[in-house]
Amino acid sequence: EPPSIPTLKSVHESGSTPESSFYLEFGKFICGFADAETAIHTIFRKVSGLVDRKARAIVGGARLVDLMSTIQRLAAFSELEDSERRELTTLFSQIQTISQFRHALIHRGVEVSEEEIISQNVMTAKTWEAIESIKFQLSDIQAATNDLTKITIRLYALVDKNVLKDEDVVFVTRLFAPWLYKSVLPKMSGLQPQSKNRKSSRPRRSSPT
After folding, report:
1. Tell me, what DSSP letter sits at residue 188?
2. In terms of CB atoms within 10 Å, which end of the chain has fewer, N or C?
């Protein structure tokens, strides 16, 4: 069945509800991802050595996955040390994992309840067999946002080593702690299309004699 259609009441509902909590955390998540994207464009300028105008002409509007691939190829010829290139790979890997989660939420929407949040592609999948759903908790979005904040700071630390110069040990330790967001994998829905050739349940009429 198609996802439920939101009502005006649910859209404008005030107070603390599962929906309002989700939208608050989702907004933080989207802004956090945008901050990370900005940091990635800054990294491109560093490893390419291009001035801003030329950098914009080359990668302005580029897909994030293509931009990261270009950066990693350029990094091999840049002034980055081996350890910094490994750090770049680590950061990009987690961004790609979070990007898949973001893609599902933006393009498929969600249904929010007190128990769980569900995102599915019932109306956009090319075939019934391709229909899938993702079930997750609010804590998954919060974990992804936390990781995006750490990724952004660590990317800027690659651009300028002085970024972490005055930070205390506790902050740096948390910054390089293991990622909180673990990939939320989609599951096939198992839905089947209704057969157009389904036989009628009505009893057959006997032929007139």
Report:
1. E
2. C
